[in-house]
Specification:
This protein is α+β, with helices and mostly antiparallel strands. About 25% of the residues lie in helices and about 15% in strands. The protein has a domain of about 80 residues: Dna Ligase, domain 1 (2-Layer Sandwich).
Length: about 400
Amino acid sequence: MSNDKDTPNDGGSAKKKGSGAKKPTSRVRPTPPSPNLAISSSPAAARPPLPAIAPSPLSEMPVPASPQAPTPPAAPRPPVAPRAPVAETQATGKRDGSKKVGLLVGREWSFPPKFIEEVTGRAEGVVVDFVKLGAEHMDDPCEYSVIIDRISHEVPFYRTYLKHAVLQGCTVVNNPFMWSADDKFFGASLITKLGLASPKTAVLPNKSYIPGIIPTESLRNLKYPLDWKALVEYVGMPCILKDAHGGGWKEVYVCRSIEELIHHYDNSGLLTMVVQEFIEWDQFIRCLCIGQQDVLPMKYDPRERRYLVEHDHLSKELGGRIVGDALTIVRALGYDMNSIEFAVRKGVPYAIDFMNPAPDMDIYSLTPHYFEWAVKHMAEMAIRLAKNPRQKAADLKWSSMFTATRSG
């Protein structure tokens, strides 16, 4: 087995996939999480019984109005009044003195209502709203202590607003500045600097460019032609070619010869591609990481793209290393929710995909067994960050690796 197109190593499934999984004809009754599956760096707090709260559906998207004739400039805008609750479930609890968590979601149907129910049921003085955005102003305060971002990778307007929200003092999960900058080549370079195992990875110049780029004038800094032989000697053959900024297992190719590699590269268009070492794996693990302290290593079948609920799929030694490596990665990235994939070859866990900051949290793909763990730990993290926000300077711990930031 390997990290090829059929057994892809591009776990951007979370980043691009959303929650479009098909529902099975019957539901599996959840079972209590096994102690050796959920490995945390701190014990989870006991939670009180949840009240019976009906899930609230997401509001319908507004339909844009038809174009109208220009109107005179509007008078200065008065102070913004508090926004009304989106739904009855979200309004539970006192607004005065409560910390607010905002939820930014797309087509997900199973996670949002359960997350709202879980946070509300803990009676911690934290309430949850679906974030509502319109034509936001540059001096608007942010009414939320925390925003959980599950969709801005597909809606650029949301990402633009979230960077404003961070400036206003909101804790955004995950940090939109880091998320805007991540790519697979940077990730491979980062974890190599951190001392973790990664497939050998190289980045390639784009094959094609936007109109206006004249190769003989605009690309004078590029080496041409590429030394394909040296590249293959570095990563090995077969190898993986994939989009440096992609996800959802799109634009991922297994190449078994130089000719095949060049063929797929020649058809990559405007994409920036990376070439990666092909890992023949003995075990495949996907970790769900929450709050930079809780890690759930799950057995995953990338051929069938499904989780396998098996309690003893990792030895104590290998499980400990995978959890430790996962924590090192999310703490370096500053990601409070992430999924990380490890391909284990001869006992060594290679981190082959680890920048998935909107991980899949659908009940039918995670299975009820792991879904309950995800909801519980997401709620605990949201409450913790709302009541005790982190110092912003601690967000991007990899910044200390830059020579320009070092003293002396």
